[in-house]
Amino acid sequence: MAVLEAEEKLARIRINSFSYLKSDWYGRLIGVYGSARSILSARAEDVARDGGISLETAGNLLREAAAADPEKELRMTEALGGRIVALGEDGYPAALAEITEPPLVLYVRGQLPEKPALGVVGTRKPSAYGRRMAQSLSRGLAECGFTIVSGLARGIDSCAHTAVLSAKGVTWAVIGTGLGRCYPAENRKLAEDIVASGGAIVSEFPYERGPMPFHFPRRNRIIAGLSCAVLVVEGAHTSGALITARMAVEQGRDVLALPGQADSPQSEGPNLLIKDGAALVRDIYDIVEALPPRHLFGLDLPRRGKEHPSSSAERLKAELGEDARAVLSCLGSEELSLDLFVERLGWTVPRVSQALFELETQSLVMARDGIYSKN
User: Fold this and answer.
1) Which of these three, 248, 281, 307, is where a domain ends?
2) 153 Rama class: left (phi>0) / alpha (psi -120 to 50) / beta
3) What pTM, to 2 d.p., does this model score?
4) Cis ω on the peptide bond leading into residue 350 (within 30° of 0)?
5) What gap in Å lies between CA 326 and CA 345, rounded to an integer?
6) Is residue 87 part of a domain?
7) Do 367 and 301 share a structural domain?
């Protein structure tokens, strides 16, 4: 890595502003012209020929790049407390630079230290089982010292980020918008908490770029590229999580998957991945055992049969009152309403409510629309 000349960095930010930029285009073009500045001074006809793209696309690329304001991009990003790092520049993640199609520039808010990172991805509509396992696995991995990489989306992504924060760990969110936008909007506080805790928000898109469907597959390759392995928790066989898994394989990363019920649509993707050779994951021990030793150096690794910080949830359960333990046992892996607890336990509503309140305050149980499930 090195320090890029200022004009070359500005030229790369300009090229990166093209709405439909593909990594292989600029890779070929920089290979031919030697620099982004030279690309911008070329004729559209030459760019089309040398980049293997249509004349219309080449013309659009040069027009959008010329209209971009890279100094403004830098000012807005810096005002947010972030920075723009170009490919080939100091501070660009080494693991990401090695993939087939690395981003030309990265917009980063927060810290991106070179340390073991593991991607956790899955459906936006997880089951209670998926939420619980995403939280448990992410928390345990964070306590081992892994950085958890995900996409700040609803569902499994949010569960993973939140669990890491609860464990005082580090998590990186790779987003499908510019740093100046938050999608979904309800995750704005989560994004702030990620940065405040020593993590990072990462994007390859211009500062004010909004969400577009084609952004998210591109975002997924960055999640895989930053990670030594990718864990798929839940997702249909057509979900974005499976796209991330495919990209991980293409980038030489390990793929791990959480098994689920054979007839569950949410578990269709992970079950197929396991059938095709992905490592089956039941707990953090399975993850640690599946990874090559080179990815585990310097971590606080658990061993089966020995207590690890991830057992803190078990210690919490041991400290619960008798009623709270009974309610937790009654809940099992199901999702139950207050009325069902009352019916099964034969208790009064106030007694069940008090036990549930104790479990919620310890983050062992969560309620959604009056339905309780394990956290």
Assistant:
1) 307
2) beta
3) 0.83
4) no
5) 9
6) no
7) no
The structure tokens listed for 168 are: 């005082």
Calculate the CA 94 to chain-centre distance.
Answer: 18
Which residues lie closer than 8 Å to 119 by C-beta, 6 or more apart?
Answer: 148, 149, 150, 223, 224, 226, 227, 229, 230, 231, 244, 248, 253
DSSP codes joined into one string, 248-271: HHHTT-EEEE----TT-GGGHHHH
For the record, the structure tokens of 169 come out as: 């760990």
- What are the tokens at 157? 């992504």
Query: Among residues 105, 35, 43, which one has the least CA distance to residue 70?
Result: 105
Encode pLDDT of 17-50 as tens digits: 998 877 777 888 888 999 999 999 999 999 999 9
Ramachandran bin of 235, using left for φ above 0, alpha for ψ from -120 to 50, beta for the remaining angles: left
Per DSSP, the three-state class of 101 is: coil
User: Residue 46 has which token pair?
Assistant: 């030459």
pLDDT band at 360 (very low <50, low <70, confident <90, very high): confident
Helix (H) or strand (E) holding 371: strand 371-374
Question: CA-CA distance, 311 to 140, in Å (whole number)?
Answer: 8
Quickly tell me which residue has 């997880």 as its tokens: 126
Q: Do 206 and 167 reside in the same domain of the chain? A: yes
The DSSP line for 304-347 is TTS--GGGHHHHHHHTS-HHHHHHHHHHTTS-EEHHHHHHHHT-
Which CATH number belongs to the domain containing residue 56 in this structure? Answer: 1.10.150
